[in-house]
Structures are given as structure tokens and as C-alpha cells.
Design brief:
The protein is an alpha+beta fold. It has one domain: Double-stranded beta-helix, CATH 3.60.130.10. The chain has helices at 5-9, 19-29, 41-51, 123-132, 137-142, 189-198, and strands at residues 32-35, 52-54, 66-68, 88-91, 103-110, 114-115, 118-122, 148-150, 156-158, 161-163, 169-171, 179-181, 201-203, 210-214, 218-222, 225-226, 230-238. The strands form five sheets. Strands 1, 2, 3, 5, 14 and 17 form a six-stranded antiparallel beta sheet that branches. The radius of gyration is 18 Å and the shape is globular.
């Protein structure tokens, strides 16, 4: 996919009448919405107020948004890579929580001088790859309960793939130093990494542009950058009904392992 295609394919004008309902429906269908016209922090907050209930956390500012930029004081600290200027691997936002926030909004205030492209991976494609590879052994292993531990001492034991009673699937993932793996899944990590990186699509945002994603479906990452790159991020839960995860690809074989409730 050429640069820019991902943005155009998922773009919605959030200023038109009825936009929140259309955004909700697109999140249900594809899990991703791209946006423009969010040039100020106040504009971002106004948009967020119609879409989600913000979940403040460790790095957020008093208004609930997090300013994402290179802060050298966090260099080398596990779990703080997003506040540096290095490359980020594909991950679920706040994977170490028992229930990660469902939605993530990222808006560009100032792009980097060089690099800093957003990299997005549709978990539905990762899931399909894992089901088709090696007879589905990787998907089965990665669906087994408590085969991954994400976070530090206060982290959470879970699994990469969670199957729900309605047949939908959620993905939860990180590859950094705060990810630990059961011997059951370690042989399948190369396939998981290949799928997560192989389906990445690049998105370079201009000021005022952003994306809103379903955190149970899309993985996000970033290339390394040079310069004063500044983005605003909001995490939270939707103000509308949103089923867990994604419906598996129609041609995907069904895994034998299943976990029916989010852990």
C-alpha cells in the first residue's frame, strides 16, 4: 500500500452532522478511523468528548491527554519508550492492564524533522496469518490462557489472542522488555513477530491529522525520529457499543484453543 492510502481509505470528516455515529460504525467494521482538522489541544479534547471517556494514567496531563515527545529523562527506562525518539515495536496500548482501554486517539501537533512515521498493523491480518501457518499451531498456542505476562511487578498474565463466545477475537501484544513468555509460545514468537511487522502500514501525519483505533484490533508502532516531534494521545472507552475485537477472516481456519472471556 502506498503512503497516504491508509489515511484516505479510513478518513471521516468529524465536523459533518452525524459524524459520531458514522465513526462508531466504522470502528465496528474496520477498527480504524483517520481524521483531520484537529489543530489545537482544545479541538482534540472537544472531539474526544463525543467519542470516549478518557482514562487518565501515569503519563497523562491534567486534562487527560498525554503529550508524546522525546523526553531524555526517560531514556532507557522499560515502559517509557514512547517518550523517547527510538523505534517502537508493534504493541497494544497499556497491555499490562487487566482491561486495556478500548480506544486510542493519536493526533499530530508537530511532525519530526525526519522519521517518526506511525506504523499500524491490523490484528485481523495477524490472526489470519497465524491460523494458516503450520496448521494453526501458532494461533492455538498464542490463544492459551496465561501464556504471556505483560508489565512489571504490577503487570498482567494473559494471552496474545483471546476468543470470545460470539466468535470474535481480540489481540493483546507487546515485544519490549516488559513482555515475558511461556515456553509454550516461545517457539511461535518468530511467526508472531513476522506477522505483526509484515502487515505494518506506514502513516505520516501532518499537523492536525490523527487516527482513532480499536485497541483490541490494531497494533501501533513508530519509526525512530530526529527533531521535536509532538503528538497528543487520548486513551479511553467508547461512548457507544463496541463488540470485542474483530471477526476472523472468512477463509481463516478455526483454532482449537479458545478462551471465552477477556482476562
Amino acid at each position: 500500500m502506498r503512503p497516504g492510502d491508509l489515511f484516505a481509505a479510513h478518513f471521516l470528516d468529524h465536523k459533518t452532522p452525524g459524524a459520531p455515529a458514522r465513526i462508531a460504525e466504522q470502528l465496528r467494521q474496520s477498527g480504524l478511523v483517520t481524521l483531520d482538522g484537529l489543530a489545537t489541544r482544545d479541538a482534540v479534547l472537544a472531539f474526544v468528548s463525543h467519542i470516549m471517556t478518557i482514562s487518565p494514567h501515569r503519563d497523562s496531563d491534567p486534562d487527560g491527554l498525554t503529550t508524546i515527545r522525546d523526553t531524555p529523562r526517560h531514556a532507557g527506562r522499560p515502559g517509557f519508550a514512547g517518550l523517547g525518539n527510538g523505534q517502537l515495536a508493534p504493541h497494544t496500548e497499556r497491555a499490562s492492564l487487566p482491561r486495556p482501554p478500548r480506544l486510542m486517539l493519536l493526533v499530530c501537533s508537530q511532525p519530526a524533522d525526519r522519521g517518526g512515521e506511525c506504523l499500524l498493523t491490523d490484528g485481523r491480518r495477524v490472526h489470519a496469518d497465524l491460523l494458516h501457518h503450520g496448521g494453526g499451531e501458532a494461533a492455538d498456542a498464542l490463544s492459551r490462557p496465561r501464556t504471556a505476562y505483560f508489565g512489571a511487578g504490577d503487570g498482567h498474565a494473559s494471552q496474545v489472542l483471546t476468543s470470545h463466545r460470539d466468535g470474535r477475537v481480540s489481540i493483546r501484544l507487546r515485544f519490549d522488555a516488559l513482555a515475558r513468555w511461556s515456553p509454550i509460545v516461545q517457539p511461535h514468537l518468530p511467526d508472531l513477530q513476522a506477522a505483526a511487522h509484515g502487515h505494518q502500514q506506514s502513516l505520516r501525519l501532518s499537523p492536525g491529522q490523527g487516527y482513532l483505533l480499536d485497541n483490541e484490533r490494531w497494533l501501533h508502532a513508530r519509526t525512530a525520529f530526529v527533531g521535536d516531534r509532538v503528538h497528543w494521545r487520548a486513551l479511553g472507552d467508547p461512548r457507544f457499543d463496541l463488540d470485542h475485537g474483530f471477526a476472523p477472516a472468512l477463509d481463516a481456519p478455526q483454532p482449537t484453543a479458545s478462551v471465552e472471556a477477556m482476562s
